[in-house]
Amino acid sequence: MPSRDEASITRLIKVLKSFGLRESDPRLRQMMEKMKSFEDEDDDARNFLLPRDKFKECVHPSMHLISQALRNHLIIPSWGEFCGQIKTIFEECAHVKDGYVATYIPQLARQDPDIWGLSICTIDGQRVSFGDSKLPFCVQSVSKAFNYAIVSSDLGADFVHSYVGHEPSGRLFNEICLDSNGKPHNPLINAGAIIVTSLIRNHLTMADRFDFVLNEYKKLAGGEHVGFNNATFLSERDTADRNYALSYYMKENKCFPPGTQGLREELDLYFQLCSLETTCETAAVMAATLANGGNSLFLCVCPLTDELCIHPRSCRDVLSLMYSCGMYDFSGKFAFQVCQ
Prior knowledge:
Blueprint: E1 6-8, H1 9-18, H2 29-42, E2 49-51, H3 52-59, H4 63-70, H5 79-93, H6 106-109, E3 117-121, E4 127-131, E5 137-138, H7 142-155, H8 157-160, H9 190-198, H10 206-220, E6 227-228, H11 230-238, H12 241-252, H13 263-274, E7 276-278, H14 280-292, E8 300-301, E9 308-310, H15 312-325, H16 331-337
Antiparallel strand pairs: 1-2, 3-4, 5-7, 6-7, 8-9
Helix pairs in contact: 2-3, 7-9, 7-15, 9-13, 10-13, 11-13
């Protein structure tokens, strides 16, 4: 029977897991490192009771998070019940075979349609995953929302929207058209996303521009996996006639900003950003970072690192655009039927 002067790190970790917090959570890193140092001293600190002073020393760097969990003050308090409901939904949806894989890029057409994964990360960093959640996939058009948020945060929303609008187009995502002001309708269709790409640090070399965005993605993901699929990039570039036609149309209408490095270079960067890879787990953290900016303070910080990633106004703007324009020509129906 343990005395009141001893405590178990193993039991604490088990309790934290029951609230959705992982051992790998960066906010618990110092605690885990301290525990490892005690393991080196005493064989295995997980499997015995630590004296009060050593236990306090171990948990002190993560005390705020631990206290929040033990007081049941995390955003989803009944975590086990919540995960049970999500698992039921996941298993029910696993039998849905409607739809088809994308065919407009040959490399995407080769993807296995039976892969099925789900990940959730809350704004407090509670996490759960099911199925093929660790398999990498290309972000494709998901990149448009994050690229807009990054550029808007870097250059300011007013400047960005002097080149691209913020209204739903009501047309196909790759339609060759502009709004009544001679600009792409919004940043979440191909025309607007290409213009947004041309605004990304266009005074730098192409390699540095790519690295800038990649590093911003990693910040949004709290250091989780973000990679690059070169085969998809090459495949997309080889079948890019529509995007080239759209870009030449925008060039004719003087849509591109000064300093644009040429259509081929800008489209290459656009295709490269579409070919960035994440997993369900990574994407869940990135989504939680944006969702964190949807609170009353609009502080767009990564829930795993507490690092400020996106300017508050830019976070607010991208969430608004995702609601109004994020599902292309299905945005209105989606908002009407789902977002209630």
